[in-house]
Design the sequence.
């Protein structure tokens, strides 16, 4: 049976010995062998946060990690994520407490070595390919603003987009921003028209803004506090 190019027996032996050492350290600290979390059970259904040593052990015992994004599962090598250490996934391996993990993902399962992200699964295909190939592309059917938000979430700068996607991305993004501006202006015009033909139109408009738009003035921000 042929071995995969990335399957180095020495690495497996090293990972196994490191895992054994961590098990012994956890046994010495807690007086019991780590039970982990039941397979399929996420942290949200567990009563107490895991010990940092248990989190470290979970990561050290496997060269691969499972990423569940929007219900779509992916399996990737830890070292692939290490290629972009300043991104959200690049920092995931260094999260050794429950609090730091919950800042990086939405949920996790240590026994299954799986981390959950409630994000766009389609966009993540492009994100993960960037880790694997070093090339970032935007899917043809993807909304440019949505893709921009996904890039921000995963901690990847849009400057890494390949030249074949740069022009299309920025053009679509500019078009969407213009459409949003026009919609906002249309809404403001409609609101203004509603008061034009009424008694004391200007005062009614100010009163409406005061009660319905908290960000329109300092007074509007104070009223909800009363």
Sequence:
């Amino acid at each position: 049976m042929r071995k995969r190019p990335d399957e180095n027996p020495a690495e497996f032996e090293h990972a196994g010995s490191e895992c054994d050492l961590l098990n012994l350290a956890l046994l010495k600290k807690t007086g019991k062998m780590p039970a982990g979390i039941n397979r399929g059970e996420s942290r949200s259904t567990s009563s107490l946060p895991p010990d940092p040593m248990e989190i470290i052990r979970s990561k050290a015992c496997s060269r691969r990690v499972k990423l569940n994004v929007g219900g779509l599962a992916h399996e990737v090598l830890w070292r692939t994520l290490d290629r972009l250490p300043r991104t959200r996934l690049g920092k995931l391996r260094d999260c050794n407490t429950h609090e730091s993990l919950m800042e990086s993902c939405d949920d996790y399962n240590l026994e299954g070595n799986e981390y959950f992200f409630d994000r766009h699964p389609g966009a993540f295909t492009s994100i993960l390919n960037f880790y694997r190939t070093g090339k970032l592309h935007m899917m043809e059917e993807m909304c440019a603003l949505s893709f921009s938000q996904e890039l921000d979430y995963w901690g990847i700068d849009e400057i890494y987009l390949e030249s074949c996607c740069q022009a299309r991305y920025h053009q679509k993004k500019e078009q969407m921003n213009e459409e949003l501006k026009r919609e906002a202006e249309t809404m403001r015009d409609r609101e203004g028209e509603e008061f034009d033909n009424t008694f004391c139109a200007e005062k009614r408009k100010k009163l409406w803004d005061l009660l319905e738009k908290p960000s329109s003035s300092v007074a509007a921000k104070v009223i909800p506090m009363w």
